[in-house]
Amino acid sequence: MNTEETNKSSMATTDLSPEIKYMHIEDLKTSFIGKTSEYINTMLNTVLDDPVLLRVAIRRCRLDCAEAERRINKLKEDNKEYIPKNEYVALQQTYDELVKTSEQLKQNFRNAKVEYNALKEALEYLIKDRDKYFTLCETYRATLTPRPKWERCASIIEGGIERWNELAIGKTSNELVDILLNEIIGGNDIYNNVVNFIGLGLDPKIPKFLQTTSNIRNRHFMQRDVSLLIEDIWKQKLEYDFEQKSTTASKQNIKISLVDFVHIYFQRRFPDDELLQLEWGYNLVAGCRRFKSSSEISNFWSVLLGQVSILYHKYS
Known about the structure:
Radius of gyration: 59 Å
Order of helices and strands: HHHHHHEEHHHHH
Largest sheet: 2 strands, antiparallel
Strand content: under 5%
Shape: rod-shaped
Distance between the termini: 147 Å
Oligomer: single chain
Strand order of the largest sheet: 1-2
């Protein structure tokens, strides 16, 4: 009887072996418990009336249970590094995507390497050109006349560095020399390019020596002409003031303004030619505007406009 039970137990255990290999551990537990319960029920129904046989069956079941528990633990230990199929499938998909991304990155790297090599060759070519032109430049610098510092010209023309930069754009050295000479003599000024000045009218606010409705000829005064004229005006102004002080009326200490005296000056200088008086007056004003870089002319122009007192000129 014991041999038959042992064979049945071994057959049950053998029957379970193929399933244990492929089932999940949790499913294995459930299956084992179910089959063990069926086996115990069968044995109980068979030997329920024999206490000795019942004890033998219980002991055998305990041994089988212990063996099954040992095998389960062994399977757990052997399969602890394995993962479920669904996780494996997910990891396989992720791996495939990473492989595709890696291939794409490798292709991008190869393309970038080709571009890098092309740029490297171009850079080497540019470096060679730079070295060649640098050597050529050093050779010219040692053998040719140095280029003048044209920025220094800005200090002697009206408008300063901004106007000089505007005049010098795209010009050669010879053209810059012409521009500089024209600036010195007033050739670049708008008043030097007109043939006739337009009369300012007869408004009382306009200085008397400029009151006319006719066009006035432009005599194109140079800076030296304007300076000599201003010097003579100041000289005549001092003499006129001295004459006025010597008269009885001068005791009232009334001084004539420079604007009014300029009108008197031209009347005295050209007593019989009113047109000539106007021509010299308009050309004096145009010259003062052109040559304001001269301190003497700028001083006279400021007093003439009433921007500063005539005492400033005397102090200067």
